[in-house]
Design a protein that fits this description.
This protein has 14 helices and no strands. With about 220 residues, it is mostly helical. Helix 4 crosses helix 5 and helix 7 crosses helix 14.
């Protein structure tokens, strides 16, 4: 799988620089397992495209750094493990630049942001980061045309996330199904799930609108 996305052919002028799918997944697994910075640094060094994207991210206006970051260790320390995992997750779903796959990446990111915002207080024992990752990864099988269970076999993810991704079950399943119902304009199913989750329809609509605007600002899917 990684070989298909990790070739070393020159990138045509004007096309986005796309990191290897395998390298992104390896980096995700290292970060999720709280590996030493040295191990993460070594993995990042293996993919020039991934390295370039990371340093572009670090030096974007959002960080407002007074001095440039020059080493991988500095980059990981500046970003932090959880934000780095979220960034890698978004990078993963935007790796396939085919128009149809880019649209799927947009929807996946909206799902993640929506679930994170709406579930922050709805599911007291859940982590907003887990909800974000659940939504973002919910379309990776369609983005990469690969069975979900095989893709999950390459990743280190909590059981609750896997339950939601594989069968829409567990504590995160209803929120994921709600995100899907809104995406498909299934008002009846969205209302049913909202009632099940004891969520106000106005809150649901506002959260989905805010999530869509947030992803549009990131430029995912464009």
């Amino acid at each position: 799988m990684s070989e298909a996305h990790g070739t070393s052919k020159p990138i045509p002028e004007g096309r986005p620089i796309v990191p290897s799918l395998g390298r992104v997944i390896n980096a995700l697994n290292l970060v999720s397992s709280n590996a030493d910075i040295e191990q993460i640094e070594l993995e990042l060094r293996k993919d020039p495209a991934l390295s370039l994207r990371l340093f572009q991210y670090i030096h974007s206006a959002g960080f407002g750094l007074a001095t440039p970051v020059r080493t991988y260790r500095q980059a990981v320390m500046v970003v932090g493990y959880k934000p780095l995992y979220r960034w890698l997750s978004l990078l993963l779903i935007s790796a396939n630049r085919e128009p149809e796959k880019m649209e799927l990446g947009f929807h996946a990111a909206v799902r993640g942001r929506f679930m994170e915002d709406l579930g922050r207080e709805q599911l007291e024992r859940s982590s907003p980061d887990d909800l974000f990752v659940t939504g973002v990864f919910s379309l990776v099988d369609r983005i990469f045309d690969h069975p979900m269970h095989l893709l999950l076999g390459t990743m280190t993810l909590p059981e609750d996330i896997c339950d939601a991704l594989l069968s829409r079950a567990g504590p995160y399943g209803p929120l994921l199904r709600l995100a899907e119902a809104l995406e498909q304009d299934d008002a009846g199913e969205a209302e049913r799930l909202g009632d099940e989750l004891l969520l106000d329809p106005k809150s649901i609509g506002a959260a989905h609108k805010a999530a869509t605007e947030w992803v549009a600002q990131l430029g995912i899917g464009t």
